[in-house]
Structure formats: structure tokens, C-alpha cells
Amino acid sequence: MPAQPARPERSGPETASVMDVPPFKPSLVKAVFRDVTPMHVSRSAAWAAASVTRTVLTEIIDGARRAASAEARRKLIPGDLLSAIDRNVELEVGSRWYDHSPTFRGLTGVLYDAEGVIVPSRQRGRSRRPSAVVGAHRFEAGVKRLLRSQGVTAVPAMVRDLDGIASVFLTDLARDAAMVVREGGVRRFGTVTLVMPGEPAPPPLLKDPLLTLSTRRGDRRTIGRDDILAATTMQLFGGTLRQRALTEARAATQNPSAG
After folding, report:
1. How many other CB atoms are there within 10 angstroms of residue 259's CB atom?
2. Where does residue 201 rank: exposed (0-12), middle (13-18), buried (19+ CB within 10 A)?
3. What is the DSSP letter of 40?
4. Which helix (H) or strand (E) holds 161?
5. What one-character-per-residue DSSP string does 221-239 give?
6. Strand locations in 133-187 (E)
7. What is the C-alpha to C-alpha distance for residues 16 and 124, in angstroms, rounded to an integer?
8. What is the pLDDT of residues 216-226, one digit of tens each?
């Protein structure tokens, strides 16, 4: 029986572009946005948000895959997620999920009251309005597609963490995009530059193209593609992940069906 060819390693931009169609469908994106805002979401905005979420989740899975590969495993476990985030601070997104997942227990800190007594964690109750945590299961199919695209599988707890992070990230993206529309731009625009210890900081960019997203044009009732791009700059650090997410979201909206 002939030997199977080795699966090529994928990293960087190739990893985030393994599929032409985002695994998180625009219809799912619009459902998440409806939980956050009554504003209309344009088709191009839905495609852009789906693309950004795909890029972020693919990068997280790739980091976890590398951690598992170091132990000769192809099934991801929650520990691989922690290793990926520990190796790359840009992957620390959807952090509100951390309070709900056993994977991150002990990392989010313990709260004490004025008497030094540990404050018990909040009990999760039934919500009349779907939240990012309650609706996390909606992302399972897309997460599994992304896992397959990288030639790995994951234990149920890991899939649940990826579901939750995707749901929280997209919900936060929706809130920021709605704020951009309401405020007419990014009022608290900023950028973060990651510098290794001992290395000089790069000179500031006098004509940063991202600054063009700080002021918006258009009505105050519709979330458009550029509002998603502006929200992305608020959700992600100013590193390679943010730039890749912006680039791929722009490319995704060039598709005629995303007009």
C-alpha cells in the first residue's frame, strides 16, 4: 500500500484563507447582531464580520494545533488552547467566556469582599434575551469545519470553548460596530504595538491607513462593512492578526454575493 503524502504545514495568511466561504454564515452573523442592536446589518457587513470571526478562530486553532503537535497529538484539548494564548497574546479574545469555562478557572482571579472572604461566582440563570454564552452552541458546526480544515479534531470541552469564544467575540464585535454607527466613528481609537524586550520600538506611522476608519460616513441606522472594520480595530491588538483580519474581510466583501 503506497504511503500517504504528508499533510503540508499551514500557517500565517494561508491558514486563515483555507475556505472561500466563511464557516460562520452571514445569516448566523445577523442573528447575533439582532441580539445586540435593532440596527439594520448590510450584506457586506455580515460577510465582513463572518470573515473576521473565521480569521480569529482559525488563528486560535492553528496555535492550539501547534501545541498539540509538539506532543504528537492531532486531537486538541483545552490545555492546547491555554498554550496557544500563552504563546501569542493576540489570541486572547472573547475573554468574557473565560468566566464560564472550567478551562480558564484560576486564570481569571478570585474575588474577595471587604472582609477577605471569597466571593462565590455568579450563578448562571435563565435569560429572557439570548446572550453570547447562551447562544454559543450556534457556532459548533462552523468550529468543526475549521478544525477539519486544519486536519485536527477536538475533545468536546475544547469545541465548547471555541464555540464560546466565537460567540462572545462576534457579540462584542456587534456591540462595537453599533457604537461606531451611533457615535459617527471610533471615538476611542488607538493602536497597540507589540515589542519584544530589548528591541527598540518602531517609529510611529504618520499615515496609518487604519486611522481612516476613525470617522464614518453614512446614516445612523445601518451597520456597514467599514463599521465592522472599525470595530475589528477595537477588538484586536495592533499586530499581525488584526491586519490579517482586516485584509481578509475586505477581500471577502469583494465577492459579488457579499455586495
Report:
1. 11
2. exposed
3. E
4. helix 156-183
5. SEE-HHHHHHHHHHHS-SS
6. 153-154
7. 34
8. 566 778 999 99
20: left (phi over 0), alpha (psi -120 to 50) or beta: alpha
Give the pLDDT of residue 184.
78
SS percent in the chain: helix, strand, coil, step 5: 55, 5, 40
Neighbouring CB atoms inside 10 A of 110's CB total 9
Residues 28-64 have pLDDT tens digits of 999 999 999 999 999 999 999 999 999 999 999 999 9
Rounded Cα distance between 185 and 127, Å, is: 31
From residue 49, alpha-carbon distances to 45, 127, 177, 225 in Å are 6, 25, 10, 8
Q: CA-to-CA distance for 243 and 248, rounded, in angstroms? A: 9
The number of helix segments (H) and strand segments (E) in the chain equals 8, 4
Q: Phi, psi at residue 222, to the nearest 5°?
A: -125, 130
- In total, the chain counts a number of residues equal to 259
Alpha-carbon span 115 to 232, nearest angstrom: 41
CB-count burial class (<10 Å; 0-12, 13-18, 19+) for 134: middle
